[in-house]
Amino acid sequence: MTSILFVCLGNICRSPMAEFIMKYMARNRDDLYIASAATSDEEIGNGVHYGTVGILREKGIPNPGHRAIQMKRSDYDKYDYIIGMEDSNIRSILMITGGDPYGKVHKLLDYTSKGGNIADPWYTHDFETTFNDIYIGCEGLMEALDGKA
After folding, report:
1. pTM for the full model?
2. In tens digits, what is the pLDDT along the chain, a chain of 149 residues?
3. 120 is annotated as an active-site residue
4. In the chain, N or C: fewer CB atoms in 10 Å?
5. Which residues pair with residue 83 across a beta bridge?
6. Is 77 one of the annotated active-site residues of the chain?
């Protein structure tokens, strides 16, 4: 079983979007465990942002009952891949984990030819662009997991 943790600042927009997209892509597989978490404690216990719920619903991707949680140091041992959405997430992840000795921490768009950061729709209000970036990132990650990348 391969385990993947998607991480963003609050765990109400980008990381749950990535979690649900990846779960949708992997719906016919039983070899992946997929979850998401926040680097901050600002949104702990809150549900998914209505903009994320809306775009996922529009795209036909289920997104049941998620509540924001904060990443813990022990998550480094629990997960095979820890995937941040942007540079600041990566810095925060590394502070939480105390480093990345096994090379588990990556940005999602590193699995694409595009590279770069995924904009936070909390600030941009552009959930469509965020969805598209996360979707291609998840496709690239899935290819890497399958040894095709």
Report:
1. 0.96
2. 999 999 999 999 999 999 999 999 999 999 999 999 999 999 999 999 999 999 999 999 998 889 999 999 999 999 999 999 999 999 999 999 999 999 999 999 999 999 999 999 999 999 999 999 999 999 999 999 998 64
3. yes
4. N
5. 6, 106
6. no
